[in-house]
Amino acid sequence: MSEEVKAPEEKAPKREKIPRQKMPEQKAEVRRKNFEEVPFGYTPELAQKEAERCLQCKDPRCKQGCPVEIDIPAFIKFIKEGDFEGAIRKLWEKNSLPAVCGRVCPQEVQCEGLCIIGKKDEPVAVGNLERFAADYQRAHGRDILPPKAEPTGKKVAVVGSGPSGLTVAGDLILKGHEVTIFEALHAPGGVLIYGIPEFRLPKAIVAQECNYLERLGGKIEVSTVVGRSETVDELLAKFDAVYLGVGAGLPIFLKVPGEHYIGVYSANEYLTRSNLMKAYEFPTYDTPIVRGKTVATFGGGNVAMDSARTALRLGADHSYIIYRRSRAELPAREAEIHHAEEEGVEFLLLTNPVRFLGDDATGRLTGVECLRQELGEPDASGRRRPVPIPGSEFQVEIDTAVISIGAGANPLLTKSTPGLALNKWGYIVADPKTGKTMKPRVWAGGDIVTGAATVILAMGAGRLASNSIHDYLTMGW
After folding, report:
1. DSSP-derived 3-state class of residue 100
2. Are the beta carbons of 100 and 203 closer than 8 angstroms?
3. Mind listing the pLDDT tens digit for each residue in 103-153?
């Protein structure tokens, strides 16, 4: 009996390889002269094309990399299918600030950093797609809101309207609690509005996200400095719980000779004058700011890149980044470094300032003396330690210096709040899993607990705290 001849198995068709869709943006020579947003965003066609690249993994690693646990494959699937309203609804389940996160979160080391496609190709552009969903909803969507739980009758005070505070507020409002946000400045948004330039995060976007919380039923009280106009204990007399998300806004300086000269700014002041007070729109906004012709920014993080790029837009002929390590150790996002390089920011790397120079008759800054460095063994951060090269001093003529080496905890609130435990740096001690402080009915999170970090990590801390506050309000300690 002859053997049965089997037909050859057909191979499954190969999945079409779709390249990562590049987001259109302003040309460098144009954008370095304006404060308009650099990337234009995806069109619906580009967004759907990029969404097709997602493999819809059953065990998505990208979700594990998201501090607020967005169901990333699910919202991307909605975009792929053209259901943009479904995409924003899915995002809102976990994130009250998708338009912000899509722009400023370090996706390359979080969700996109874990994307399985990224092992052999460029990862799915999660951040770009998140931004698209939020922007499309704002421009074209219906006036929709996510469902809210029945009112619980409980009241929560949130101190600070930065990413951590806004996350806590959004979560608790949806869970049925009455939330009031207290903001020290005259506009809500915290570091999102005073610390990040218009060309990277437009103020209208932040205002829209804050307005979303108000539409949900939240209250925002601006120009209220808790710790001065009202204490935390006074809030506790009116609210069932208090969340402290006041950030880390105390500038840190280099502590080298000459920092007293006119023209030396902290990055906090320099960016606040430009961002929140719109000094770049002079004379429409009569906010004074030095428009230096030769500006040096000291530091290598995102805030340093923001400062150096702002200096160009304010008319600087030369804008330097002076950083004591090499390019490989720059802590800023690669996209921000790339944009700075394209726009003409000049990098003086392996360079450390030792003193500022000035005209003692006028008190004005005229230059900085630096020392060249070389990289030695790794330090506690895992980066190679910069080691001075003896006799390598040189001077750079500058008229403006921006110090961007971090920020500390402002003691205004903590000094007026007995019962809060602080660490040796002045940050609030809080349980990393719940945000609970040592003071009953008070939670804290974000930079005032961890020190300066990213927007999404502050939001992640807010998410943990909101869950803990909700448990307390509904079940007790």
Report:
1. helix
2. no
3. 999 999 999 999 999 999 999 999 999 999 999 999 998 888 888 999 999
155-249+408-475: CATH number: 3.50.50.60
The per-residue pLDDT for range 423-446, each reduced to its tens digit, is 999 999 999 999 999 999 999 999
DSSP string, 176-208: T-EEEEE-SSSSS-THHHHTS-TTTS-HHHHHH
pLDDT tens across 222-250, in order?
999 999 999 999 999 999 999 999 999 89
What order do you get walking across the sheet with 346-348 strand by strand? 264-266, 400-403, 294-298, 318-322, 346-348
Q: Where are the alpha helices (DSSP H) in 276-408?
A: 302-313, 334-343
Out of 3.30.43.10, 3.50.50.60, 1.10.10.10, 2.60.40.10, which CATH number does the structure's domain 253-405 have? 3.50.50.60
The CATH T-level fold of domain 28-140 is Fumarate Reductase Iron-sulfur Protein; Chain B, domain 2 (1.10.1060)
For residue 364, how many C-alpha atoms fall within 13 Å in the half-sphere facing its CB? 8
pTM: 0.90
